Amino acid sequence: MKKYVGAVDQGTTSTRFIIFNHDGNIVGVDQKEHRQIFEKPGWVEHDPMEVWGNTAAVIQGALAKSGISGDELAAIGVTNQRETVLVWDKNTGRPFHNAIVWQCTRTDSICQELIKDGGQDRFRVKTGLPVATYFSGPKIKWILDNVPAAKEAVLRGDAMFGTMDTWIIWNLTGGVHGGSHVTDVTNASRTMLMDISTLQWDDEILKILDIPASGLPKITPSSDSKTWGSSKIDGPVGARVPVCGNLGDQQAALFGQTCFQQGEAKNTYGTGCFMLLNTGNRPVQSKHGLLTTLGYQIGNEKPVYALEGSVAMAGALVQWVRDNLQMIREAPEIETLASAVKDNGDVYCVPAFSGLFAPYWRSDARGVIVGLTRYANRYHIARAVLEATAYQTKDIVDAMNLDSGVELTSLKVDGGMVENKLLMQFQSDILNVPVIRPKVAETTALGAAYAAGLAVGFWASSDALKANWSIHTTWKPDMNEKKRAKGYAGWKKAVEKTLNWIE
Questions:
Q1: pLDDT tens digit string along 351-364?
Q2: What span, in angstroms and rounded, lies between the C-alpha atoms of 182 and 489?
Q3: E strand or H helix that includes residue 499
Q4: How many other C-beta atoms can be found within 10 angstroms of the C-beta atom of residue 207?
Q5: What is the mean pLDDT of the segment spanning 81-97?
Q6: Sign of the dihedral defined by the CA atoms of residues 427, 429, 433, 439, in that order
Q7: Separation between Cα atoms, residue 262 and residue 278, nearest integer Å
């Protein structure tokens, strides 16, 4: 009997395999970190072979730790860091270059050339996105322009392009022995190459970027009853299990939070910080710096769209404090430091390490710590680091309220940083709305599991998924308006200091 659904969660800093039961509870998990490769300032890479090796290891690890066999899984879903892209040889399975990570800014000159010919919004009507280093398409172009072996493989018809979901699914379903070359609508919507109305690769944009359609994966629904193939018996699962759920990590969290109604929103606090608002079956073009993106698509149903605000540095900023400044040994210690003072002492940290994402979209910005006096100490800096995530979220909420015409009344939250009670309380205070954490905080992997389980009938409908959702903790605002306004004014002033750093 098929009792469980598995989900590969291929993230920016680690890969996990999580096994869920019918109630949406975790019954098995394993996790491995992979290297962050920084060859030049602003460049970020991952080794795709290391990531696939880790994926295979955590699948085996989670099954072994839980005592569950692969043939007890009804289906497997995949969720992934979005916009991270690679090019590989379909005959050997070897990448031509490391994967270029979503945080990487090496494509700035490509983006500036694109902007020259039509402005930052030249593709926005079709793609929902501004021209920015964040997205996958220019990264593919960079590899083809700078790696001769990749270009030669394209001319031979041997090159495959894909984001990390595509890479994982291809390997999981057979790799060089007939692996499925697919991506879903959510990941495709982050490439800057897909028309979000037709859900097809756009020939005009491909021509402008000189990217051949032949190397791109097939675009599929996020939950697909046709499935894209099965895991192989001689692979890490050890059984033939349908692989039939796939969503970019933030859309997976939207799905896992069961934000199925228009107007429902979630915020994920991970390496970055990502807020999505369900806008229903039509794309809403943003006028305030947000992204118009695909939320999800179930089978042949109409696609669901979302507005998204993206923050590059959230948990990654805490990692930087740990690894670069060595102020703490473990990430949770940041809360202890920050709790030692009652406020930030007028210190602000704006982590524009790779420029500013939504709603500013300024690749010329760089990080700052401002407001320092002799009074300031490491406790104030620790608090400013945590508050930066909450302030960046407020920037996005304000833009979202303007674009949607609807005031946010509460915020569902998930991701690793929701364990930080000080941050969650400050987030509620600065937004002046309740912040709600669900019982199962691993909503990204849960969303991928839900998509796969729906495809094979493990869960009958979205109503069954909603029935699984329950509240763990609610934080309510406890800050007067004067203090809130003063704090946010200081933040906006600090943001101004990051601009025009790069010529």
A1: 999 888 888 888 88
A2: 46
A3: none
A4: 11
A5: 96
A6: positive
A7: 5
The DSSP symbol for 83 reads S
**Calpha distance 109→112 (Å, rounded):** 5
Burial group, residue 47, by CB count within 10 angstroms (0-12, 13-18, 19+): middle
The Cα–Cα gap between 352 and 369 comes to: 10
- With residue 146 as reference, give the H or E element that holds it: helix 136-146
- Tell me the pTM: 0.84
Distance CA 327, CA 324 (A): 8
CA distance 288 to 213: 32
Q: What string of H, E and C letters represents the secondary structure of 218-258?
A: EEECCECCCCCCECCCCCCCCCCCEEEEEEEHHHHHHHHCC
What does the pLDDT read at residue 406?
74
Q: Which of 68, 72, 75, 101 is nearest to 8 (CA)?
A: 75
Residue linked to tokens 């100490």: 377
How far apart CA 230 and CA 174 sit, in angstroms, is 8
Per the listing, tokens 């929701």 go with: 418
Among all chains, which residue has been given the structure tokens 């290891």? 57
**φ, ψ dihedrals at 33, nearest 5°:** -80, 155
The encoded tokens of residue 94 equal 């070897």
Backbone angles phi, psi at 469, to 5 degrees: -80, 130
- DSSP element (H, E) containing 306: strand 304-311
Q: Helix/strand/coil (H, E, C) string of 266-294? A: EEEECCCEEEEEEEECCCCCCCCCCEEEE
Residue written as tokens 């998204």? 308
For 22-40, write each residue's pLDDT tens digit: 999 999 999 999 999 999 9
Decide if 35 contacts 90 (C-beta within 8 A).
Answer: no
Asked if residue 251 lies in contact with residue 83, where contact means CB atoms within 8 angstroms, the answer is no
pLDDT at 1: 62
Q: Report how far residue 490's alpha carbon sits from residue 368's, in angstroms, rounded to the nearest whole number.
A: 13
C-alpha torsion 112→359→387→15, nearest 10: -70
Amino acid making up residue 160: M
Tokens 């090159």 belong to 159
DSSP string covering 421-447, please?
HHHHHHHHHHHTS-EEEES---HHHHH
What is the spatial distance between Cα 422 and Cα 418, in angstroms, rounded to a whole number?
9
> Would you tell me how many other CB atoms lie within 10 Å of the CB of residue 303?
20
Q: HSE-up of 338 (CA within 13 Å, CB side)?
A: 25
3-class secondary-structure state, position 81: coil
Q: 405 is written with which tokens?
A: 């015409």
For residue 48, whether the previous peptide bond is cis, meaning omega lies within 30 degrees of 0, is no
Block residue for tokens 């066999």: 69
* Contact status, residue 266 vs residue 410, Cβ threshold 8 Å: no
The span from the CA of 79 to the CA of 414, in Å, is: 15
Amino acid at 302: K
Torsion-angle region of 381 (φ positive above 0: left; ψ -120 to 50: alpha; else: beta):
alpha
